[in-house]
Each structure stands twice: as C-alpha cells, then as structure tokens.
Design brief:
The chain contains 9 helices and 12 strands. The chain folds into 3 domains: 79 residues, Orthogonal Bundle (Arc Repressor Mutant, subunit A); 108 residues, Periplasmic binding protein-like II (D-Maltodextrin-Binding Protein, domain 2, 3-Layer(aba) Sandwich), CATH 3.40.190; 93 residues, Periplasmic binding protein-like II (D-Maltodextrin-Binding Protein, domain 2, 3-Layer(aba) Sandwich). The strands form 4 sheets. Strands 4-3-5-12-6 form a 5-stranded mixed sheet, covered by helices on one side. Strands 10-7-11 form a 3-stranded antiparallel sheet. It is an alpha/beta fold and 298 residues long. The chain is elongated. The longest helix has 25 residues. Helix 7 links the parallel strand 8 and strand 9. The mean pLDDT is 83. It holds the Pfam family HTH_1. It comes from Massilia hydrophila. Keywords: DNA-binding, Transcription, Transcription regulation.
C-alpha cells in the first residue's frame, strides 16, 4: 500500500517537532494552538505540511481528536527529550548559584489539596519565592506524559512504573458522623442503619465505594456527592454518616469516628513526575519539600 503522501526529502526541524509534541499533548487542534500561542488553522496547515514532507501520517483524525501514530509518538518522544535538555541547559546558564525559579503545576484530588497540600504551601513559598505555583484540584487523573501537570500527588498502592516519585506517607480513612447527628439519633443503635452519605456514580471505583459494597451490601446511601470534600461537608452539617479521610477531619471537634480507621481503606500518598523533568532544580526542591513536610498533615 502506498503511503498517503509522496515522500520527499525531509526538512524536519525543531519548530516542527514542537508542533508535533503540542498536538500530541493537546489531543486536538485547539489544545495544540493554545500551547503554541497560535490559531487552530496554523496548526492544521502545519501538521498537513509536515506529513506531506515526511510522506507519512503522524496523527489519526477522529471525532475524539488527534491520536498520534507510531511515528508521531516517536517524534513526540524526541521533542520531549529536546525540550527537557533545553530547559536544563537554560537552568545551568541562568540559575547557577541562584534560587530555584520557574513555574510548577501540581495536581491532586480536592481532599488531598485542602487537607494535606495547602497547609504546607505557605512555608514552601517562603523558602522558594521565585517558584510560581499552579495548584489544580481535580478527581480526574492528569497525564504527566502529556504534561497536563509537572507533579501529580496521588493516593495509590501501586504507582505507575513509567513515572518517578517519592512516597509521602500513609492516608487512612474512617466512617464519621457529626456529634450532633449522633446525639439526635441515639435511638439508632447501629450506624449501618443511619443515613449514609456516599460518593456518586462518577466515582464508582473509589476505595470507599468498593469497601461499602463489599462489607455493607444492604446499605443504600440516602445522599450522594461528587467529591470527598462534599461527603465531609455533609457529615459535618449533620446529614448522616460517611467515609472520610482522617486528614480531612484532623482535630475537628464537630465530628467523631463511628468505625475505623479501616485497614482496607489505607493507602499510600505519592508525588509523581515524568522522568524527563526530575533533574530540574525546581522539581528537586519540591520533591524534597513534599517528602519531609507533609507528614504532620496526614
């Protein structure tokens, strides 16, 4: 089968690789255009030109966006390595003997953000005033390979092998209720018969969901929430009982544990990054800070 374009002598250069990488990361024309600071028509014309010069398709087009072919992935990999080495070279030239600087984008879940990460960030900002932080709370796992974030803080017992990172500590969870709710429901002797607050169908595989289905199959939640912090808020306000991480309710006088900590809900907290970025100065100092500073908040 003939290739989709007639092969000519390739003049592939660095801007072309940058465009391939941007389209791979952005997943569509608009995402690539935003990363490059150009319009979508420029991205479209440029990728068509590059493919014509190479005589090969670099992306498969579909309604879901642009998916890199095998060659597209290979070129994006070269571009990533060049990008990383260029950034390290800039650091070597500009920041030798100076304070770490630049932007760090960190993503984690809303509960870890509020209870574990944010309490420590003021200290980090004082230590490294030239580092700009972008903190993103999301229950959606960011793709570090696509550079959606520089660092992902994830609760997991098995961090992905293709990423590098450090173990930050252990997260525990328990079934909680507010003291006011328990006082008002003294006539209900078993917490399993109380009003349950649980996560909704958008998080079906959350550990608290699996645990409840396995150990309390007859429990039908009265209230459903789309985030752990919402479950915690409903518990505090006396709506019922629910599974909440201990870190979220640390030293909260309005609530108490009715069951737990539950061993099956215990998990590890990891800070993870793409291997190509681990040598950057700002990444090194953040990893060391996270490793040594988050323990008291878990």
């Amino acid at each position: 089968m003939k290739p989709p374009y007639a092969r000519t002598q390739s003049k592939l250069d660095l801007p072309d690789l940058e465009l391939v990488l941007a389209l791979h990361r952005g997943r569509n024309l608009a995402g690539a255009a935003e990363r490059l600071g150009v319009d979508t028509s420029t991205v479209f014309r440029s990728i068509k030109r590059i493919e014509k010069e190479l005589g090969e398709l670099l992306f498969e087009r579909s309604r879901q966006g642009y998916a890199a072919t095998e060659l597209g992935l290979e070129l994006a990999g070269y571009a990533e390595r060049i990008e990383s080495q260029l950034e390290q070279a800039r650091e070597a030239v500009l920041h030798t003997g100076s304070s770490p600087s630049g932007t760090l984008r960190i993503t984690t879940t809303d509960s870890v953000m509020q209870s574990v990460l944010l309490p420590a960030m003021a200290k980090f900002a004082l230590l490294y005033p030239e580092i700009e932080l972008e903190l993103v709370a999301s229950n959606t796992l960011a793709s570090l390979s696509q550079r959606d974030a520089d660092i992902a803080i994830r609760a997991t017992r098995q961090p992905p092998e293709h990423l590098v990172g450090v173990r930050l500590g252990t997260l525990q969870a328990a079934v909680y209720a507010s003291r006011a709710y328990l006082e008002a429901h003294r006539h209900v002797p078993d917490y399993r018969d109380m009003d349950w607050i649980a996560l909704d169908a958008t998080l079906p595989d959350h550990p608290s969901q699996r645990w409840r289905r396995q150990h309390l199959p007859k429990v039908v939640p009265r209230y459903r929430m789309n985030s752990v912090l919402s479950v915690a808020g409903a518990v505090v306000h006396g709506m019922g009982v629910g599974v909440v991480p201990l870190a979220v309710f640390k030293d909260n006088p309005l609530v108490q544990i009715v069951d737990g900590p539950i061993a099956e809900l215990e998990t590890e907290l990891w800070a993870l990054a793409h291997p190509d970025t681990r040598h950057l100065q700002r990444m090194r100092v953040m990893f060391e800070f996270l490793r040594t500073s988050l323990g008291p908040f878990m």
